[in-house]
UniProtKB/TrEMBL annotation:
PROSITE patterns: FIBRINOGEN_C_2. It comes from the Eukaryota. Pfam families: Fibrinogen_C. This is Fibrinogen C-terminal domain-containing protein. It comes from Macrostomum lignano. Residues 1-125 form the Fibrinogen C-terminal domain.
Amino acid sequence: MKSWNSTEFWAEYSNFKVGPESGKYKISFSSSYSKSHSTIGNSMSVANGQLFSARDANNDECSNRNFNCAAHYNGWWFSCCSNIFPNGQFFNYPTALSAPDWKGIVWRYGFGPAYSLMEIEILIA
């Protein structure tokens, strides 16, 4: 991921897997976050073990089932809701530095909910 001052950050997780459609694309990865191989906080932890949610497939764990995280934040592996929104709305600089909370491309532990990243990519090896 890249911040608006062009600094690059990354978070590394091991044993990363996405399950089959029949299992609602359940995501799993090693619970041991690799601090020695990461340069930013562990915002993915709440996604571990979650089912994929989309606007038309509400699989999140919100106690109020009338709220669909994906309908508000786009598709992702939500608990209720999340600490990371790679599919959030893109905001240009300087609006991205103080975007509406949880609306941008968010990585909470490192930037907070109001900072929208310049770019983010997820690589699975």
